[in-house]
Amino acid sequence: MAMEPKKTPMPTQDPRERITNFREVALGYTPEDARREALRCLNCKNRPCVEGCPVNVNIPGFIQKIREGDLDGAYEVIAATSSLPAVCGRVCPQENQCEAKCAMGIKFEPVGIGRLERYVADHHNAASVPPRKASSNGCKVAVVGSGPSSLTCAGDLAKLGYDVTVFEALHAAGGVLVYGIPEFRLPKSIVAREVENLKALGVTVETNVVVGKTVTVDELFEEGFRAVFLGTGAGLPMFMNIPGENLVGVYSANEYLTRSNLMKAYREDSDTPIRKGGRVAVVGGGNVAMDAARTALRLGAEKVTIIYRRSEAELPARREEAEHAREEGVEFLYLANPVEILGYRNFEDPRDPKNGAVTGIRCTRMELGEPDERGRRVPRPIAGSEFHVPVDTVVIAIGTSPNPLIRSIVGGVQLNRRGGIVVTEEGATHRAGVYAGGDAVTGAATVISAMGAGKTAAAAIHRYLSE
Amino acid sequence: MFRIETKEVLNDTIYRMGIVSPRVAKKARPGQFIMLRVDEAGERIPLTIAGTDPEKGIVDIIFQAYGTTTKKLCEKEAGDEIADFVGPLGKPTEIRGQKICVIGGGVGCAIALPIAREYASVGADVTCIIGFRSKNMVILEDEFRSFSRRVFVMTDDGSYGSTGNVCMPLKEMLEKGEDFDRIIAIGPLVMMRFVTETARPWGVPVSVSMNPIMIDGTGMCGGCRMTLKDEYGRPATVFACVDGPEFDGYQVDFDEVMTRGRMYADFERHSYEKTCNLFRAADQAKKEGC
Hints:
With 467 residues, chain A is of the alpha/beta class. Helix content of chain A is 34%, strand content 16%.
């Protein structure tokens, strides 16, 4: 049979249509699409894709099941190692992981592994019965935070019979999946379903509890918890430390996205305000920057510009996300770096309500120098190249670092100089019975690597409590 | 859901509610705050803790109904529930000094009260100055009097206590040589700024309590960021939610805080009007139904 050189395209909402709503952009494969894409897998012997997956999903195995028309079987293969397939199928950077290693990719486009994973997970979720609760071993474990590492850790422990309680500071469980990633990329109903599945497994989810403030880790041990997993994420937004960053209309991406995603500020019936319309600049080139830019468009911005200090080739965002942003009309200003955010000031009338509002960004042109130790070329400012971009709203999306509250959460845990929790390969901290994983350890990374860490820690906690 | 155990009307627009939240009641210290959400469509807002009853598991909040969320909240009655209530957040007040002047303006008195009470409970000499627009706005006077050595009540229009603002008795005392170890001012930004300026010539340390726009209250959004300037004028950005809410009044850039506080003024006005109209329509419907 002749080999299809290209991936079966993902059906999507039309760009002109989708910038007027917050519904999911990628619509998912049809059964025909999925069958056709599954046939592209060579089922090769050494299975390089599995190695590329942080949780080692048996990829050829589940694709084989799709070919056989056994979607429940395909789901079982994925679920054996992955806890959140409907999430990973949507937000994993497959092009750097499984699909980067795919043998098909040597000559042609790799197999659309992520798209197939999503197809299988959605099929399962549409029809499935909730998972059954394991019989309790009576041993209590506390999980702090409810993002991908925590949900995975909690799920794995619950399946082993542990009595798990997840403590979440916000009013909804899901962590970055709920406050960070927009509805149009990851519908919140999918996250809610994953949380419901956990509850069916017997996990208790307590929202509105800030561990370290409402209750300390020491008190959790006193309450009878035998081990604690810290999956507190990388929630501290970084700023550029340039003049004008505190003007009215400058947001951290965390604030902007939380207002829209968690607080639903895009909806008419939400009491939470957000700036809508006007000209919006987003500083940064990662997935979060793409999310913020595309959110701005959907909130009615006239013009959205991404300002990135390197060139297109170095964009850290997934190609697909940058491509979607471009299709929707987001403009990209490469090799430019903000040096000052400018604001309105009426010297004659200090009570002018427009005082302090953003009017523009002063940027300098950059050029790329020698590669740094990670192989990325270092941007350098070009002297005398400053120029002005008129804007009304600025979103800073240059990264986040581990949640600063961690210091007050627990004694005896060591932090590295970037604020990340120091752990062993198994996820153990310096304090007995306290484990950690995900962005709280690594700084901002991917959903799947956080899941992998949650899994590793769950296994380590099980060994620790079985001793 | 969190149950409202008690509700008390303190004046035309200010209410006290006791919310059932045993974990928060056990942990809260004076100066800390909570975040709440009234219902599923609600905004998260910060409110400072006005008092606690750890045995009953109740946390008191005092608020003025001036925006959408506080308007929705004041329409709730004892026995009703609110969607979310989380805390205690922020750093507690650091109890420093033996001779203290606590100044509260309007609803800010609600925050000043537990701090003043805490100082009194450790044996400090506490003077309180509380200021209001007029007689019908005065709140918590008896409670301040119950533990303070002196209480000055000021009204803008002179309808009760002495006429004028809270800086007047403060200045008079400082001029007479009162040697306060610390002044704690909590109220409108303008008031806190003027208290700071009044104290400046004497160099008395001034603590002010900030209540900027926040979403999460745990240091994640940065919406509450503000600039502090040290004695050499070097700026540093801090987050009021985790680094505060109390700061050295001499370091706060009040202009910036005021400007950032107006960020959503238009939205808030529209939203408030919409909410008030909804309640009015509901009242009307109720009347017609009777």
